[in-house]
Design brief:
- The chain is α/β, with parallel strands linked by helices.
- 28% of the residues lie in helices and 25% in strands.
- Strands 1, 2, 3, 4, 5, 6 and 19 form a seven-stranded mixed β-sheet that branches. A five-stranded parallel β-sheet has the order 8-15-9-10-11.
- The radius of gyration is 24 Å and the shape is elongated.
């Protein structure tokens, strides 16, 4: 259970409790920063049986991996709480983060809310997502090797997906669906022995809770054991609009993401982003690495700010700011009651 009590303020509020958010929080907590992870409990990979391609943790169930991460963050004094951020507003010293009935202050923000997979309206597709309807050969390909795979042409990367899955099985069928092929694409598929079926796909055929095939608009059913579909991936970032931070259309046409620099810093001062919210194709390992790197950058930014204040106080030992810092150092939380 995610039950940590939410304090009034933290050095860093991490919004999103996946691999990127927990890794960023772990890095910050180890540097003795006060940090809280706000977890809405909607991990993208929840339907999957295991996390793959993650060194030393390959095949770990997603829920188990997250629980291990939460325990590690808590072990260094970090907090993890259930909640969903509704709005964020800037204030004099950072940000006010509203969770509906609660609010918390943050000096810095790390956004790791991931993305939403928007799937085409094909009967049965959503229900099988993460089981025998998949999208990534690196995440799920080994598990479906040598099976009869159908790839749906629902986006700009459909042919690319078909060519990648051909590496894993000799039985690949490409359904052009709503994406007509160019002459060059047809040649590539033919050269690799990938069958092409034209016509719109309307439904998946399910027998005994297993995918059995794909049905076309003319009623034709083609047997398949696995279906590959490219979702439109959209960053979960609506709560940032009040700060002027909005997702950008991906140049490959596969969705929308938050743009950042190489350190994870966004265009809004004080806000970093990591994981799928800014890198649509990142696997768990890459998302975790990006979260850790962003956490280190945030700590460095806070250190620079604290050093500037310390230098100012050193130069002006009797300034109002120096007096306030001295009061805080001596009395701590009791200073407001004196």
């Amino acid at each position: 259970m995610v039950t940590d009590q939410l304090k009034d303020g933290y050095d860093v509020v991490v919004i999103g409790g996946g691999a990127a958010g927990l890794s960023g929080a772990l890095m910050l907590a180890r540097m003795r920063r006060s940090v809280v992870v706000i977890d809405a409990g909607q991990p993208r990979n929840a339907p999957a049986e295991g996390v793959h391609g993650l060194l030393a943790r390959d095949g770990t169930p997603p829920g188990e991996l997250l629980e291990r991460g939460r325990a590690e963050v808590r072990g260094y004094g970090g907090h993890v709480v259930n909640g969903e951020v509704v709005t964020i507003a800037r204030d004099a010293d950072g940000f006010a983060v509203c969770l509906g009935d609660r609010s918390v202050r943050a000096r810095r923000l790390l956004v790791t809310t991931g993305l939403i997979d928007e799937l085409p309206e094909i009967a049965g597709l959503r229900e099988r997502w993460g089981r025998d309807v998949i999208h990534c050969p690196y995440c799920h390909g080994w598990e479906v090797r040598d099976q009869a795979i159908g790839v749906l042409g629902t986006g700009p990367m459909g042919v690319h997906q078909a060519l990648l899955f051909r590496q894993l099985t000799a039985d690949v069928t490409y359904f052009s669906h709503t994406m007509p092929l160019t002459a060059e694409q047809s040649e590539e598929l033919n050269a690799r022995g990938i069958r092409v079926v034209h016509g719109e796909v309307t439904a998946l055929e399910i027998v005994d809770d297993r995918l059995a095939g794909v049905r076309l608009s003319d009623g034709t059913a083609i047997a398949r054991e696995v279906v590959v579909v490219g979702s439109r991936m959209v960053a979960r970032a609506n709560f940032l609009e009040t700060l002027g931070l909005q997702p950008t259309e991906h140049p490959a046409g596969v969705g929308e993401y938050l743009t950042t620099d190489a350190t994870g810093r966004t265009d809004v001062p004080g806000i970093w982003a990591a994981g799928n919210v800014t890198d649509l194709t990142a696997q768990v390992g890459a998302a975790a690495a990006a979260g850790a790197a962003a956490g280190a950058q945030i700590n460095a930014d806070l250190v620079a700010e604290e050093t500037r204040r310390a230098v100012a106080a050193y130069r002006e030992p009797f300034s109002a700011e120096a007096e306030a810092q001295l009061c805080e150092a001596v009395t701590g939380d009791r200073r407001h009651g004196m």
